[in-house]
Amino acid sequence: MTQEQALEKLNALEKKKAAYAHAMGLISYDAVTGAPLGGAACRGETLAVLSQEEYRLKAGPETQELLAFLAGCGQALPPQAARRVEILRQELDETRCIPPEEYAAYQKLLNDAEAVWHEAKGKSDFDSFAPYLKKIIDTQIRFAAYSAADKDPYEYYLDRYEPGMDAKALDAFFSALRERLVPLLQRVQAAKQVDASFLTGDFPLEKQRALAQELMDVLRIDRAHCAIGETEHPFTTDFSKFDVRITTHYYRQNLFPALFSVVHEGGHALYELNTADEYAYTCLGTGVSMGVHESQSRFYENLIGRSRGFIAFLTPRLQALFPQLSDVSQQALYRAVNRCEASLIRIEADELTYCLHVMVRYELEKKLFARQMAVEELPQAWNALYREYLGVVPSCDREGVFQDSHWAGGSFGYFPSYALGSAYGAQMMHCMKKSVDVDACAAAGDLAPVNRWLCENIWRHGKRYRPDELLARVFGGPFDPAYYLAYLEKKYTEIYEL
Amino acid sequence: MTQEQALEKLNALEKKKAAYAHAMGLISYDAVTGAPLGGAACRGETLAVLSQEEYRLKAGPETQELLAFLAGCGQALPPQAARRVEILRQELDETRCIPPEEYAAYQKLLNDAEAVWHEAKGKSDFDSFAPYLKKIIDTQIRFAAYSAADKDPYEYYLDRYEPGMDAKALDAFFSALRERLVPLLQRVQAAKQVDASFLTGDFPLEKQRALAQELMDVLRIDRAHCAIGETEHPFTTDFSKFDVRITTHYYRQNLFPALFSVVHEGGHALYELNTADEYAYTCLGTGVSMGVHESQSRFYENLIGRSRGFIAFLTPRLQALFPQLSDVSQQALYRAVNRCEASLIRIEADELTYCLHVMVRYELEKKLFARQMAVEELPQAWNALYREYLGVVPSCDREGVFQDSHWAGGSFGYFPSYALGSAYGAQMMHCMKKSVDVDACAAAGDLAPVNRWLCENIWRHGKRYRPDELLARVFGGPFDPAYYLAYLEKKYTEIYEL
Description:
With 498 residues, chain A is mainly alpha-helical.
């Protein structure tokens, strides 16, 4: 086999992998959009069959042989191909080190745990969920050891979601946040509160849907390759850069959850839609890490969407659609959509308190994975941290430890991405402002220059570089949360006239 | 390999086939529901990969060996297994006899032809479409010869959609229809016309959606396993008996297209939902033929949905949702939804003229496949038959020969199913009425006894018997279109007071 032949084989392999990812991704998307409730068993049968083939493509003997050959080509391999081989070999190693029967048992455990979590959440009954959570954590620690016996298991998972980021760096990051955000929050809470009464009312769904379409156009999302659906919880998924889906949830009584979720998911979508064409159907053609992905979504949601300029642009449009807002000034709307309120639910949190919610989860995950805390102690520890960071305490576990589905789904080490992404975004904004008048763009509703900058610096690269490499290129230096903290302090000092 | 082991292998094979059919079916469903327009290329890539594997499951060496072994078991095989082997071997033979490169070229031809058809239809430009249609017909005739060299090619395709039905029987069927329906239509056209002015107006979509949900409940469709979507053209599809989808299209100005399409597709859905559990994930677990499938959908749409009793049941419900109907009597509504009007478009046709539309297509398909007519002569021949049977002539080909997508998709021999299904349904009604007071059920909106009869006699059997065998069991004798003709004559004589 020549190197050229091997690269052709690699392309064919990745195209096949993309096809299975598309089919399986669509089945999951359909599960929360069009499928009848009783379709779960049929879906399970189909996913079981397709994932067998997916496993073979990831870790079968042909793939092993091909990747070993390509790895052996060394410096002769073009750098992009070398990066693909690096990513695919890592995936192969991670897949192969878990005995198939243990992997299958874990999938079943997650399936069962999700159902138990749903029911237990409804009843706020942590005792019935605890044994499942314990088993998930035990399995994750065991799997981490299979793959990297010498590595701390929590570090292992942190690295999977944000390659290059470790607990030491995250500890420093969260410490900086805690030191400056907790006192800021206390000052905000002591100040005169913002009127947000007009944010709730009657907002007909058809008009909200029309607004969502308009917002997607304002974001310059290529509608030929991105559709919007409706689900319980908003999210973004992609079947290739040519077929991206975002979803939202409309509330009749409140316009703003859907509005900001469309802008948030729109940021994710823009990233996927704008990876380089040449990376399509390869492992390079997608966002590089969860943190960088969240940096894009939270950039659009907050740094653009909740900016003074963009709210000024939106106000007359909102007033035309919803006459009850006609007496609300730009300034009043700007303050209302940025109102800070220490609350119990992460996904409803404002920009200032958001990272404190994330921090709670990070602290708890570390302790669980270090065996410094038993699963049974989790609800109490959760409530104690909410009291400490946010000054509020859940009245029941449904409003507390049960609120996110991540842990029931085995996603430990994922939460920090949300906070990292927020901070990455602020530093990107700092860099972008050297060449783009972002405030003027937002106020004019002309986001083309913003998109251009992000495409040039981030989107088009896909997974070509490791996230820390990519960020170093973008920032021209190390990641520094000071930009994020300065941004929040300036914004909330102004809004609350501190 | 023992017979028992072979049957286990057969189950595993059919489960795999069902999984691929699910994935590919969902990708096609998504294409007309949630997908962005530019997703076609990505979809094509994925379908190409999955269909390779599907081909292997249908006709690969392992399947060949397994089916040959099972066929060799002869009488020792349980009858249901023997039927599965019979169906799968036929599929294998049909798949295998076409050289893969010719099959791929034909798939490409169909892809291209569909795009050309769309564009040519818009411009009513038959000349640009004719070369594609000619190639499709040539290929179909060639493929039929590969599979059954001694059989008339059109008979070959008729038999695929309605096994056991041949052109001789269909000729007799359509002759009987023509002889009695054309004069009946002429008498109806000469009579005093029915007022249907109130059928159009303003029918808010949210209320239509609510009505669709209510209708599905009235039909006793298991909502846990059947969801409704919205598409340009209504249809039904299933990914297994546990996950069935129907679609409709709501028109703001006219309530009734969506109403009757939900009842029509509901009939298809009930059939798929109620095949026996033991046939799930096997080739027996689906409707037996297109004709029998249409018999169920047109039974619900017309024999139930457009019956005097069901309209009486519906009237107060419609009046509650749509106040503009509050002065319309049951009798006026019954007559209006059954108004007969010779029109140009099949899918908008009333019950009396519907089969005449089908007959036009049947006559033309026969001539094309017998090479008695060139493709170029098609528009003129189409218009001549419309004048003869329906007394109307299209002003352009868009309203004529272009209206259905079937031919551009290579579906020759399919149209007769629509007429056969209508006639099967009338004979089923005759049999059902021996034990069920159908009129009383319809008037009470209690369709449970109707569903029970159809489930017992038709649905649960799936593909266990050939369609002609199944119908002979249901009818207790041969299929006879006299029931259908008598039904139409009675209904329209009454409505038009002939």
